[in-house]
From TrEMBL:
NCBIfam families: casA_cse1
Pfam families: CRISPR_Cse1
Listed name of the protein: Type I-E CRISPR-associated protein Cse1/CasA
Domain of life of the native organism: Bacteria
Gene: casA
Start and end residues of each stretch annotated as Disordered: 224-251
Compositionally biased residues, Basic and acidic residues: 224-237
Length: 549
């Protein structure tokens, strides 16, 4: 705090919660984070998505501090030097020092990530809850916060929620701001969620923050460094939206100002906020700037825009384990689709960069990487938060790169094998329900939940333990053997629990024909289906269709 006004510098004040290598937890400033990056294991937060938002801020700072370092896609030696020696802190701190005023959370003219004179026509100020993701739908009845925790925020926590709000704030009607031409009758109508909430966020984690940052800094080739600026290097934002819905590059997108915000504080806490719409963003084909999301081809968008193939960010499927969609992370040898059609999807650019590093001998095939998924499910026209996804897998680099050998193909087929086996378990559960005179829908759904839950940890252990130099088919067969044992055990439980009516059976319509379904028939069908689903490779001693059930 200065003699005449309060200050809170993100550069010097601790505000980033960190898990250190020794297992302790500390809050560090930006200076502390960059000085001690090799001793930080992870960035923490009130909610997991704070980690993604804060790491993206750190990545933007690094791209600007080393503006010429991460541009040449062929500078493998330069990247390898940083990988072996670590990111030097002094150039980063010198860079930050040049924008010290812009990193002051409470600056009267240029407060960090805010608009100093932001106001509504009636000068309304809301409490702190619009900033908080851990107050469901801003409902005080359904949160662990109570008392002063719902009334004021320490400056450090307010800084975290501010960064998070710019990344993940829900859509919906906001307060209309003076100076925003889009405001109508005091309202700001929906422009969408924060950018990070619109993508399927992926960070590749290393064993330290230093490694994590480097693993997430693919080069940005081209000549846009002079225009690809973060908010602290531009003229301060006003209530009005910037005219362009297209980001100028990865730095602009990492720090995209989805909202206009002003924090209201007393001498030691944030006690309220003014929050309105910021910059809208067009999600089409942002893969040239957004390196931390997978992408999917959209025919409707392509037909609508008539400007070549259009790709949209590929959101995570919440409620579904991350590993079940791992095929979307695999870097293919060719990006083209079949018969000249556009590729249906492609992985995050950050993983494509890892493929280049491996193929050029910078990272060995056996390098362990840990893609971590961050996602948010919004409800009620994206105006409320219903669920947050935080999931990770660990695998050798070659397992996610097609050109690295046969291992990535085995990984894809391992998930397919699990899916087929679970479908057979669902079929058994459904048939047992039909045999007893009940509905099959509920039992099938519960069987799917039980099947994937039982396979979850074994799959993660198997994936992490893959060996790039070992026989990929043999390792796949090991997984199939585990699936067979696990799913069979679940099936046996259901058969033992079958009712007397199910053993007696009844006539049901299946596939257009009448079948007398009973427990023993359902079990026979399951066993045959599981054998077909988990056929081992003929190269390993079993003929197609054979195997123990």
């Amino acid at each position: 705090m200065t003699a005449d006004r309060p200050t809170f510098s993100l550069i010097t004040e601790p505000w980033i919660p960190c898990l250190m290598a020794d297992g302790s937890e500390r809050e560090l400033s930006l200076t502390g984070v960059f000085r001690e990056a090799d001793g930080v294991r992870d960035i923490l937060g009130e909610v997991p998505t704070q980690t993604f938002a804060i790491v993206r801020l750190l990545l933007a700072i690094l791209r600007r501090a080393f503006v010429d370092r991460f541009r040449d896609p062929d500078d493998f030696e330069g990247w390898a030097e940083l990988w072996s020696q670590g990111i030097p802190a002094e150039p980063v701190l010198d860079y930050l020092d040049g924008f010290a005023d812009r990193f002051d959370l409470l600056h009267p003219v240029t407060p960090f990530f805010q608009v100093a004179d932001l106001r509504t026509a009636k000068n309304e100020v809301k409490d702190i809850t619009p900033l908080l993701f851990d107050v469901p739908s801003n409902s005080r009845l359904f949160t662990g916060r109570a008392g002063s925790a719902l009334e004021r925020l320490p400056f450090a926590e307010a800084a975290r929620w501010l960064v998070h709000a710019q990344a993940y704030d829900p859509s919906g009607i906001k307060s209309g701001m003076v100076g925003d031409a889009r405001a109508t009758s005091g309202r700001g109508y929906p422009i969408g969620t924060g950018w990070a909430g619109a993508i399927g966020g992926i960070l590749v984690e290393g064993e330290s923050l230093d490694r994590t940052l480097l693993l997430n800094l693919p080069p940005d080739p081209g000549d846009r460094a002079n225009i690809d600026l973060p908010p602290w290097e531009r003229e301060p934002d006003t209530a009005a939206a910037r005219p362009n819905e297209m980001p100028t590059g990865p730095v602009d997108l990492l720090t995209w100002q989805s909202r206009r915000i002003r924090l209201v504080s007393d001498d030691d806490s944030v006690v309220g906020c003014v929050l309105g719409n910021g910059d809208r963003i067009a999600p089409q084909n942002q893969w040239t700037s957004e390196f931390h999301s997978a992408w999917r081809y959209s025919k409707p968008q392509t037909d609508k825009l008539k400007a070549g193939p259009v790709y949209m960010p590929r959101a995570h499927q919440l409620g579904r384990a991350f590993w079940r969609g791992i095929s979307g992370l695999i870097v293919r040898s060719s990006s083209a689709g079949s018969a000249g059609e556009p590729a249906a999807a492609f992985p995050p650019q950050v993983l494509t960069w890892h493929a280049d590093l491996m193929l050029n001998g910078i990272l060995p095939k056996g390098t362990r990487i840990a893609p971590r998924a961050f996602g948010v499910e919004y409800g009620s026209n994206q105006s409320v938060v219903t669920e947050i996804l935080d999931d990770r897998v660990s695998a050798p680099l070659a397992a996610l790169i097609e050109a690295g050998g046969e291992l990535s193909g085995a990984v894809e087929r391992s998930v397919e094998a699990a899916d087929r086996a679970v479908r057979e378990l669902m079929g058994l559960a459904g048939n047992l329900a039909l045999a007893s005179g009940g509905s099959s829908e509920g039992p099938r759904s519960r069987a799917a939940e039980d099947g994937y839950a039982a396979l979850d940890r074994p799959f993660r252990v198997w994936l992490s333990g893959l060996k790039p130099d070992a026989d990929a088919e043999a390792q796949l067969d090991e997984w199939k053997a585990q699936v067979r044992v696990i799913v069979h055990a679940l099936a046996d439980e259901r058969v033992r629990a079958a009712s007397a009516a199910a053993w007696q059976g009844r006539d049901v319509q299946i596939g257009g024909r009448t079948v007398t379904m009973k427990t023993n028939i359902a079990e026979q069908w399951f066993r045959a289906g599981l054998r077909r689903s988990l056929v081992r490779s003929t190269a390993h001693g079993e003929a197609a269709g054979e195997g123990t059930a």
